[in-house]
Amino acid sequence: MNVLEKAHLAKELQGLIHSLDQRSLSFYEIAKSKCRLKEIFIHCDEPIFKKQILNFKSHMQPELAAQEFAQHSLYVQTFRGVFKQDLALEQALEQHPEMGWAILHRANLGFQIWYIPAPNRTALLSDWDGLEKNYAWMLEQQEIYAALKTDTELNQETLETGKTFKMSRNSVVPLQNSSQSIPESHSINRPFSFESLIPQGTSTQNTDWDAAAFSMESLSLSPKQEDTKPSLASAEPQTTSGLLLKTATAALEPNSLLPQIVELGEWKCRLAALQFPQAQELELCHLTLDNVSELMPLLEIIVSASQLQQYNNQPVYLAEQINAQGRFVKYIVILGAEDQLHAIRLGNIVSQHYAYELVALKLLPNEQLLKQCKNAQQFFELYSEQAELVWNTESYQPFIPANCIQKHKLIAFEETSANYRTPIILLKERQKIRVIHGQSRLQLLREETAYPYILLDRHQGVSWQLIQKIIQTLPQPISASKLYDAIQIYIGS
Would you say residue 319 has pLDDT above 50? Predict the structure, then answer.
């Protein structure tokens, strides 16, 4: 195909897509135009056409266009798919929390790329735009976080792992059938609680075994019954915090076992060491909730390994964490902090590593109440009513878990556009929290764990009937700030 023929086809493509966009064609003409577009796609799959055809395919077959676009990227192996629903996309990313990216498509908005900036972190979201612009955005994030590995890097790692495995098989020394066998009663995923962290008669011996397997299987924490078989012994016992940190660290190393499960009141958590220099200097670990489904996406617990025994005697600090877009990431539960400044420092070390930000810190004097929370509603009531605010940023807006509100709008009226920092105005009455203003904010992203909010209460003399009267006096569309100011003026009068 010569240049002139390509130019004619490009002009024909532009005419076809313009006609389809204008919606001025009959059903027959629409079908005919689409058929002609498909013919061009088939015959013109040359590199010079790919960029031009991408725009047309994005209109005609958006999901297929996105899939093909991703297959030509540098990160095919970490691509998790094209989705129409937020929830399905989130579930796909959660299956590979260490790294990944995916594309969300909506007919009226276009495409959006979700990018995991670090292992087990909330995804960053691009604006709604075309595939090429959003992919350029993702490459900018990759320059900052370097969270994805290219297909070449992953293939090389696979090759090196295969070589290492072959070498290790050739160098295995069989263990003697002696008394130095691992007791069968030591379970790999044996749960333990903070109250029983001090090993009773537990010690270690230097061997050539895999360090991760040894630290997990030979760790005996307050066994319920005496072991009948001899255990590995050594004259050099380790400290409790050192042993736990070694266990948590080893659990994150390649080919190692899962982190241990620890009990924190009603909660069961996975213990793991944070794997970046500042955190390692302070022996910081994080605990991930494993048995309370509503709280799992909301909370992250951090504690120094040296404080695992002493945290019961110290206050608990709770922080709110956001990303660069202003979206809520998680509540950070900080155990074992000496004071407010120490808690802020620990929270910032963890947050800044992932380019997140702390916006508020609260003090909870009784950590027992925290460990009894079984759902998002109980946690929110504890956080908002019993925890004392000790620090916040100037632009701080508190967040409320999505599970705590009824998203159906109570009063119909036109709202102004919103961004991720726009608060939702809520009304609490009869033990229910209802949306007064915030439909635009809720539509930005269907699945969010928490939203910035302003809460009104019937005890303040505010009812939905009163709010409806105030709305009727305001020109529409109405912003959240104007509505809230009008309500405050009425209450104060």
Answer: yes
- Per the DSSP assignment, residues forming a β-bridge with 406 are 434
Cis peptide before 477 (omega within 30 of 0): yes
| CATH class entry, domain 69-145 | alpha beta
Q: What is the dihedral of CA 213, 217, 218, 223, to 10 degrees?
A: 160
User: pLDDT tens digits for 3-26?
Assistant: 666 677 777 777 777 777 666 677
Query: Strands 316-322 and 357-364, how do they pair?
Result: antiparallel
CA 338 – CA 353 distance, rounded (Å) = 22
CA-CA distance, 342 to 317, in Å (whole number)?
A: 10
Q: Among all chains, which residue has been given the structure tokens 């293939």?
A: 155
Q: What is the pLDDT of residue 202?
A: 40
434 C-beta neighbours (distance < 10 Å), count: 18
Structural contact between residues 93 and 114, judged by C-beta atoms closer than 8 angstroms: yes
283 to 121, 243, 286, 346, 364: CA distances (angstroms): 20, 11, 10, 11, 23
Residue with tokens 């966009």: 21
Task: Delimit the domains of the chain by residue range.
Answer: 3-60, 69-145, 261-395, 400-492
The Cα 200–Cα 177 span in angstroms is: 26
Whole-model pTM: value is: 0.56
CA gap 382, 175 in Å, rounded: 54
User: What residues does 288 pair with on adjacent strands?
Assistant: 270
- Number of residues that make up the chain: 493
Short-list 47, 44, 58, 51, CA closest to 6? 44
**Can you spell out the DSSP letters for 172-221?**
--PPPSSS----TT--TT--EEGGG-S-SS------SS-HHHHHHHS---
Q: Report residue 140's pLDDT band, with 50, 70 and 90 as the boundaries.
A: confident
| More confident: 209 or 142 | 142
For residue 344, CA distances in Å to 271, 335, 347, 399 come to 21, 12, 5, 18
Highest mean pLDDT among 47-51, 53-57, 405-409, 412-416: 412-416
State both tokens at 337: 């902090």
What tokens does 275 get?
A: 């794997």
